[in-house]
Amino acid sequence: MIARYSIEHSVDFAYDAPVHSSVMTLYLRPIQDRRQVVVNFGIETDPPGTLFDFVGPFGNHGHFLDRPGAHERLAIRSRSTVEVGPMPQVPTRLGSDAWKELGSAIRSPELWLMLQPSHFVGPSTVLDRFVDEHGIRPGDDPLQSAAELRTTLHDIFEYMPGSTAVNSPIDRILETGRGVCQDYAHVMASILRGWGVPCRYVSGYLGPDDDFATPGESHAWVECWYPGLGWVGLDPANNSRSDHRHVRVAVGRDYADVPPTRGVYRGAADSKLTTTVIVTRHRETLGTA
What we know:
This protein is of the alpha+beta class. The chain has helices at 98-105, 109-113, 125-133, 142-156, 170-176, 181-195, and strands at 2-26, 36-46, 51-55, 61-67, 71-84, 158-159, 178-179, 199-206, 213-216, 219-226, 230-235, 240-241, 246-252, 261-266, 271-285. It starts with a strand and ends with a strand.
């Protein structure tokens, strides 16, 4: 079955005094590949102006805008229609020599990069203590170990919006036990990279189970690479593999590589950000993987 979604993502920056020269990069266009098809996509801005598209270092399609005139508000709205196909079948285990085979198969710079520490993903003394306290260790199979880690983090952490910020280090959720999907993904990637499993961060949306519109937020999970399988998506916030509900927008080492919006402006003003995401799932149709 193919799941079809309409997604509206609105971002509104309100300034308490006029600003100018707003410059911003956007990662809002969903990924298109064999499993996910972008039927249509568009961005509107207020103030209006030209949008420039580019392809980032991880293959993500981004946009750049420059609004030089004075303004007290910058509104950005993207609309997408996306079809997500079924996931390929993934075994629960890889085999008796899977760790050795994984290590010898990591040869490309892309995979090597997803083993290295990055801005929000990496070792820390707080992470070492967390792992020891909860007895988190890799088992004899790297795929099964990642699935067990996903479940462990889901059970330990409490999902609580507002308990962390977009720039919070992993130490925050590790110390409080509360966070959001971004924090879950950063912790999971930190542990898996330490085990020698290439792991990347995925930003996107989580669609509803039924045919209706639902307010939501951007979502985040991880993908792990295994020989013979490629990238396998794991969602620790929902304790699931990625499936037809997961709409991928961008991949990177962590959130710092793929924020939906990032920019600067000139002016002595404070800003207030309001974000709205609405995902509508339409009737499923038969399709092939």
